Structure formats: C-alpha cells, structure tokens
Amino acid sequence: MKLSLFIHMERTTPDEPQEQLYEQMMELCEIADRGGVHTIWTGEHHGMNFTIAPNPFINLVDIAHRTQHARLGTGTVIAPFHHPVRLAGEAAMTDLITNGRLELGIARGAYSYEYERLMPGLTAWDAGQRMRELIPAVKKLWQGDYAHQGEYWSFPATTSAPQPKQQPHPPIWVAARDPNSHEFAVKNGCNVQVTPLHQGEEEIVRLVTCFKDACREHAPQQPLKIMLLQHGYVAEDEADAQQAAQELNRFYHYFGAWFKNERPVSQGLIKPLSDEEMAANSYYNAEMMRNNLAIGTADEVVARLKNYEQMGYAEFALWIDSGMSFARKKASLERFIRHVMPEFH
C-alpha cells in the first residue's frame, strides 16, 4: 500500500498571518517529499479560512518546484465549478509543468456554503450529474477534436490546449461514497478516493466493498485503485494520542458546523464554538476520534494501516489538516515517515 499526504492551508484565528501559514504548509510538503511519500494531495475550496484552497493547480505547481519525487494530486477539483474545456487545459498545463506528476481527483463537492456562493440553487444531486458529464468530456478533449452537446455544457469541436504530458492522460480519481458513484468511476476507467471521515471500520469496509463489487460487475480494462483518506496522528505516547484525539474532536465539530451551513461567518471565519456547544453535540467526541482515526503510537498506526492494506486499499493518504499547531503536525509527520512508512516499502 502506498502512503501519501493530504494537506491544505488552514486558518483558525484572524491573528494567524496567511503568508506564514502557507510557508508552513509548503514545509510539510517538502518534509513529506524527502521522506518518500507517494503523492501529495490538495483540494479546492472557496471562501473558507477553514480550508484555504481556491485553486489546487496553483498549489501543485508551487509544490512541484519545491519537491523532487512525490506525485501531485488534486483531492479534489469540484466538478460543477469547472467548464470541461477549461479543466482539461488547466489540468494538462499542470501535468506539463510538473513533468507528468499530476493525479487528477474530481468530486461533486460537499459544502452548501460554496454552492450558494458560486452556483446558487445547485443541489448535491445536480452537482453529481455535472461530474458525470464533465469527466468523459475532459478525457475526450485530451484526445482532441471533440464536440459536446450535453445537459450542462455544449461546445463545437475542441482540442485541449495544451495536451497532457502523461499519455493517454493523467490518472483520474473520483471521490465516491454510494455504490452508484463507485460504478460510475469504474465504468469510466477512474480510480476511487473514499473518505469515511470520523466513522469506524464498518464504513471503511463498506466503501472498499462497493469498489470491489463495481470492479467485479464492470470488469475494467485496466486495473483500478482505491485510496483511503483519513485523519491521523503518530503520537509519542498515549497522553500525546489523547491530546490529538481532543484536537481532532474540535476539528470535526467545526467541520460539522461548516457542513450544516447554519452558523454566522465573518471574514472567512465561522463564529467560534463554545466548549458547552461542543460538549452538547454527541455526534462527535474524543473517544470516537481515538478509536476510529489513525491516531496512536507508531506501532498502533502501522497495525491499523496494515489492516486497511489487507482490506484491499492501494493507497492511504494521511489527512494532516487538524487545527493543530504547526509544531505538532510536523512532529507527527516526521514520526510517520521515520516509523510507519518503512513498514510499507
């Protein structure tokens, strides 16, 4: 199983300098690359200091110039916010600039906060349908001289300019949860990214089972892969692991608040949650984080990841966004590289 890093620039308070946060993100990417991670993934989000990522291609080009070996992935581009011609060209240009290191992950998006700002009235269903139209169109634009008449986009014969370095095209990944999404990905020759969030092993098994079922039913021409994206923290000891569980519990309370889109937002920051509000929300708790996420000493994390490997996951991406201090993120990543990754070489 390949081990990767999933990372964004995140800002939790207005007094954190954005330039410093960006350079800290880049430093973690450089550490990961020197340590031998397979891919560095970063996504797309808008208007949210919780996840500052307006254009993943910009970040990946910068990361490419600061690293040597890691593949560079969008985790993920939000399909309804992109015209097929524009996405095909921007992804191909990124593939050229990064010397063929691009992995193109695409999703329908998750936050209604973003939908109502970029495409008012957009529903999750409609976003998913747009993704299903977008991906085949992008692949055909890379082949060239492709005209499209669809439900959402129409354009005369067009060839992506430029065309990607990787042939026939960069690997495409689809963020999938329900069986229909897995089937769409497999039928279109795409790998699959899954994110169980704070949920436990039952959900992790369900997701890989959906992928395996889709592969059995649709028999892809080329072998496809499934990647598990999950929060984790490699701890010095149990007290350190418990602190990480508390920090990730706080992160998920804020994640849930952004997802529900009911709380006031000012200057890109959501209204702070009180300790009382978080304690009253039983949907998340620190014990759940400790049990369900890749939190623990190096031996514990190795054992958990070996279990995922046995299930059939081809890649594990360590989701480092957490609201933790830069020092704690860095220490965990260095322990991950030093003590966990050698077990998977």
Question: How do the helices and strands line up, and which of them pair or pack?
Answer:
Layout: E1 2-6, H1 18-35, E2 39-42, H2 56-66, E3 71-78, H3 84-97, E4 102-107, H4 112-118, H5 124-143, E5 146-149, E6 154-158, E7 172-175, H6 179-187, E8 191-194, H7 201-218, E9 226-234, H8 238-260, E10 265-266, E11 269-270, H9 275-280, H10 286-292, E12 294-296, H11 298-311, E13 315-319, H12 326-340
Helix pairs in contact: 1-12, 2-3, 3-5, 6-7, 8-10, 11-12
Structure description:
By secondary structure, the chain is α/β, with parallel strands linked by helices. The chain has a single domain (2-343), classed as Luciferase-like domain (TIM Barrel). It has helices spanning 18-35, 56-66, 84-97, 112-118, 124-143, 179-187, 201-218, 238-260, 275-280, 286-292, 298-311, 326-340, and strands spanning 2-6, 39-42, 71-78, 102-107, 146-149, 154-158, 172-175, 191-194, 226-234, 265-266, 269-270, 294-296, 315-319. The longest helix is centred in the last third of the chain and has 23 residues, at 238-260. The N and C termini lie close together (8 Å). The model has no long low-confidence stretch (mean pLDDT 97).
